[in-house]
Amino acid sequence: MTGTTTTDPARPAAVRTVLGDVPGSRLGVCDAHDHLFFRSHALPGQELDDPGEAEARLRAFQALGGGAVVQWSPYGTGRRAADLPGLARRTGVRIVAATGLHQAAHYPPGMLEPLLPRLAEVFTEELTSDMRGAPGVRAGLIKVAGAFHGLDDHARHVMRAAAEAHHATGAPIAVHHEMGTAVLDVLDLLCGQLAVPAHRVILGHLNRSPDLRLHHQAARSGAFLAFDGPSRANHATDWRLLDCLTALADSGHTPQLLLGADTTTPTAGPGMPYLLRVLRPRIERELGAEVAEAVLRGNPARAFEVEWR
């Protein structure tokens, strides 16, 4: 069955949260792609950088039954890794942090050049030892990003480093697809050329390009499919989301579906509570409670639970 993993009894699988490793079953209801903190050179003045506001969002999510949030903010994007353990303790929401790199445009000139020759080493250290600026805090996934309808040299270099770090650690790789494009290019590079198992890859932003044929082709690879960033009127999101989820579920791909709010700026959509306040009831009505439970609880547990090396 697609989207499944094998388990080595000598090495229990776990989700690597900022407070330590836990079984996937303990994540609970999960926002599989969001940002508590995010800073981009391409978005001046639109930073998510307020710990108090981040805590309020987590508490609102938790009050609706939320149990975990996966922050996809990678290296150098203001992820405030040192603040994440305190937020997790105070709110009771498990937090998974990311290493990796975003598109080059999100970084100021000169920031990446010293880092690029040793990316795989940096990613591996952050997954197994300490995240930069946060001693004792480890990342639980690698975030990478494609370009618009293709992969530029930066994307290919970062994805090669991510694959090397994956093979060293077992960590999942989460992919930002610009406007939902370049999905097959990513699968060809990561899963084809670089031999990353497809069930360790999470394809993000598929809602932004609601191409059902492409979604089915991607699903047949065995990768996880993330529909993240709901309720953005300038994207084909809510009004096609249920059609996309229904088509994939009807084809047997329910075990690969993930949902996330992807809040990247203070005004980027309604935020993580929307997943549970609005989308969960709609999915339950249209697809049934079993599908909603899989998408919000069971699937994230498997997507982010790995046998760490």
From TrEMBL:
It comes from the Bacteria. Zn(2+) 1 binds at residues 33, 35, 143, 262. GO terms for molecular function: hydrolase activity; zinc ion binding. Binds 2 divalent metal cations per subunit. Zn(2+) 2 binds at residues 143, 176, 205. Keywords: Hydrolase, Metal-binding. PROSITE patterns: PHOSPHOTRIESTERASE_2 (PS51347). Its cofactor is a divalent metal cation. The modification N6-carboxylysine is found at residue 143. PANTHER family: PHOSPHOTRIESTERASE-RELATED (PTHR10819), PHOSPHOTRIESTERASE-RELATED PROTEIN (PTHR10819:SF3). Belongs to the metallo-dependent hydrolases superfamily. Phosphotriesterase family. This is Phosphotriesterase-family protein. The lineage of its organism: Bacteria, Bacillati, Actinomycetota, Actinomycetes, Kitasatosporales.
